[in-house]
Write a structure and sequence with these properties.
The protein is α/β, with parallel strands linked by helices and about 475 residues long. Among the domains are: about 230 residues, 3-Layer(aba) Sandwich (Aspartate Aminotransferase, domain 2); about 70 residues, Ornithine Decarboxylase, Chain A, domain 4. The chain has 15 helices and 17 strands.
Amino acid sequence: MTGLTTRQTLESVVPAALSPRPERWPLRQVLAQQAAHAGLPLHLPAHRRGLGRAFHWPRLPWSWDLPELPAVGGPLLTEGAVAESQSLVAAALGVDFSWYGVNGASGLLQAALLAVAGPGSRVLLPRHHHRSLLHGAVLAGFNPLLYSVPFDGCTGLWQPLPPKHLDRFLQQAAPVDLLVLLSPTYQGLASDLPSLVAIAHRHGVPVLVDEAHGGHFGFDASLPQAAIAAGADLVVQSLHKSLGALAQAAVLHAQGPRLDVQRLAQALEWLQTSSPSALLMLSAEQSLAQRLTARGHSQLKRLLRQAVELHQHLKQEGIPVLAVDDPLRLVLHTAPMGCSGVDADEWLLERNVIAECPELFSLTFCLGLGGSRGLARPLLRELRRLSRERGGEPLAPLVPPPLPAVAQLDIAPGQAWRSASREVPIAKAEDCIAARPICPYPPGIPLLLPGERLDAARLEWLQQQRLLWRGQIADTVTVLA
C-alpha cells in the first residue's frame, strides 16, 4: 500500500477480519503469546526476555520516548544528556569518544568502514565477517582484501586468527588502509587481540574490531581482554548481545591518533537515523553503567560462575559441549551426537527450547544475563531426548573451504551486486562471477561473495554446503549476465 486516496479510509484497506482494537493487532498478539510461553529462552537479546534486564521501568515507557529535545540531545550533538552520557562512558573506559547507535552493531560497523575507506581503499576483511561488513564495502565502494582464518573441520567453526599469520598477511597485502578483526566469534571464541593490534600498528595500519558479541569482555579477570584495552582504534559492541540493553542498541568506541574524528562523525550521520530512539539510547547507557558498578561486577562474576557450572554439569553427564572463551555462550557440539546443528535446532524449537545460532556441527545457546541456575535439569532432559531421537553415528569432519590465505574479488562487490545478473544451477556455474551472496542467517557469515569467481573446487564445496544446510541454500546461484 502506497497511501490512501481521498476516497479510501483506514477501514477500507485493513482486512475486515482484523479488529481495530490495539490488543488485537498481529504483532502485539504474537509478542504476548511469546511472552506467555517462553519455555527456555536461550537466545539473544542477552537480557533473555527481561530476566537480565539492565534496569526496571518505573512505569510504561511511552512517556520516555522523546525526540532530540535540548535537554535530551542525540549521539552526534555536543549538548544534552546523550552527549554527557557518552562522555561518561568514554572516560570510564579510557577511550577518546563513544557513540550510541540505534540500528545495531551493523550500522556502526558500516559507519566505521566509511570513515576510513572509500573507492580504491585496501581493507583487510576476514572471510568469516558478518554480512553487515560486506554491505559496508558495497556502500563505501571498495573491493576488500579477504583473509582466511583457520577452520576446524571437526566443529565446523572458524578459529581465532594466529598472530603469526597476520604479520604475513599484512606484508602480502601491503599497502593496507584498514584491518578488520572479528573477536569474539558468535560462539565465543576470542583472538589474541593485544598481539594482533600491536602487529597491525607496527605496520602503520589502524584496526577496527567487530566485538559485537564481547561487550562484557574486560569486566572480569576470567574473560578475554577487551578490544579497547588491546589498543584497537575502532571497536563496535552490540549491547543487546552481551549486556542488558534492548535490541538494536550498540556503541562505537574510538581512540588514538590514526583516526579522523570529523570523518567518523560524518559517516555516523550518513548511516544513523535523524530520530534516534531515546529508549534505545537509555538502554545502551544503562547496560554500560550497570557493568561499571561494583554491583554489576558482582553480578557478572556470579553469572559466569553459574555458566561454568552448567557447562561442567552437562559435560559430566555426557553431553558434548565445546570449550570456548566466553562462558556465557554454551555451544553444543552436535556432530558427535550424529546430527547437525540445523537439525538439532529444528527439533528443540518444536519443544520450545530456543537456541540462538545453529551451525552445521554445533548449536549455540546464549546464556546472557538471565542466569543459568535452574537450567541444568530441563536442558539436560531435552538434550538427552534429542540424542535418542535424532542421534546416530558421529558425523565425519567437514572439508575446509578451498580459499587462499589472502585474495581479492575479481570485481568489487558493489559493482557485481548492481550489474545485470542471471540465475544458473550451481553445477553449471563454473568460471562465472557471483552477483549475489549466499549467506545463511544466523550467523550471517557469507559463504559466497558478490564479485567472487566460481572455480570447480569452490562449486563442489558450495554443493556440499547446500546439502548440509537443508534447504537454506538454493540449488542455483545468481551470477553476472
